[in-house]
Design goal:
The protein contains ten helices and 14 strands. With 290 residues, it is of the alpha+beta class. It has two domains: 6-227, Hsp33 domain (3-Layer(bab) Sandwich), CATH 3.55.30.10; 233-288, CBS domain Like (Alpha-Beta Complex). Strands 1, 2, 8, 9, 10 and 11 form a six-stranded antiparallel sheet that branches. It has a six-stranded mixed sheet with strand order 7-6-3-4-5-12, covered by helices on one side. Helix 9 runs antiparallel to helix 10 (273-281). The structure holds zinc ion (ZN). Zinc ion binds at residues 229, 231, 262, 264-265, 267.
């Protein structure tokens, strides 16, 4: 983790617009190093990795936030997930490298889902239609329909970094100044002047004072973000339990062991016949780790 792996919230007070900036350095390098991603698969994964901490900043939750797409297009699976502590992970699977746009040519005939696990056992699920050129358009469309809050996204990634920005109109009850629709359009047009790597290269202070010089910018403290996977031996054992005893024993007989590699972080868990017996006995896993 470096200082570059950061999220910054800010407020454009005059325009009654809240914003969030995200820079991913090591977090992105770790995610993209897990597979030999073709260029445009990598691009949609990078955009999603930059988007998830932006989304997380708009919701109160203590559990997990997941953005997922499973489709019949060139990208068959995209999953990005964030927890409330700034940890995030993500992966994509593909049939072939898609065109870079539109988004429907990337995922095919499907929709994306947003799932929020509140941390208190409640699960909320939203549907993001696959519209527009990229994830930024689909997410803006989602907010317009589900939250009725005008929201825009700017997403960027290359081989070394990913970055994103969100702007969102404050709800009426949170506004402290007079502003109108023109202010919203104006800050959006100013944000459109940011080129991709400027979003990443410039410090938040520099970037915001260049782009929103007319607005009173209030920048909040840096929040760290990082690549973090919540896989564990215990969870993996749960997967084996889900297979059922018969199938698990079958694999052991054929392969000698069950090897499960986490696709998010590449960590490997190996279970032998004694481990498998212990799982179905409901035994304590910790006593059988070799
Ligand atoms: Zn993992």
């Amino acid at each position: 983790m470096t200082d570059k792996d950061s999220r910054y919230r800010f407020l454009l007070e005059k325009a009654n617009v809240r914003g969030v900036l995200v820079h991913l350095d090591q977090t992105w390098k770790e995610a993209r190093s897990r597979a030999e991603y073709p260029a445009n698969v990598q691009q949609v994964l990078g955009h999603a990795m930059a988007a998830i901490p932006l989304l997380a900043s708009t919701i109160k939750f203590t559990g997990k936030l997941t953005l997922q797409a499973r489709g019949d297009g060139p990208v068959s699976l995209l999953v990005v997930q964030a927890n409330a502590g700034g940890g995030q992970r993500g992966l994509a699977q593909w049939r072939e490298d898609p065109p870079s746009a539109p988004l429907s040519a990337v995922f095919g005939n499907t929709s994306l889902s947003i799932q929020i696990e509140s941390g208190r056992g409640e699960v909320y699920q939203g549907v993001v239609e696959v519209v527009g050129d990229g994830l930024q358009d689909a997410l803006a469309n989602y907010f317009e329909h589900s939250e009725q809050l005008p929201t825009r996204f700017w997403l960027y990634c290359d081989d070394h970094c990913a970055a994103g920005m969100l702007l969102q109109q404050l709800p009426q009850e949170s506004r402290t100044q007079d502003s109108d629709e023109d202010d919203w359009l104006r800050v959006g047009m100013m944000a459109d002047t940011i080129n991709g790597n400027e979003l990443y290269e410039r410090s938040p202070e520099e970037l915001l004072s260049r782009v929103f010089s007319e607005d009173d910018v209030r920048l909040y403290d840096r929040e760290p973000v990082r690549f973090e996977c919540n896989c564990s031996r215990e969870r993996t054992a749960g997967l084996i339990e889900g297979l059922g005893r018969e199938e698990a024993v079958d694999i052991i007989e054929q392969e000698g062991q069950i090897e499960i590699i986490c696709e998010f972080c590449n960590s490997k868990n190996v279970f032998d016949s004694i481990d498998v017996e212990a799982i179905f006995r409901g035994g304590d896993q910790s006593t059988t780790i070799h």
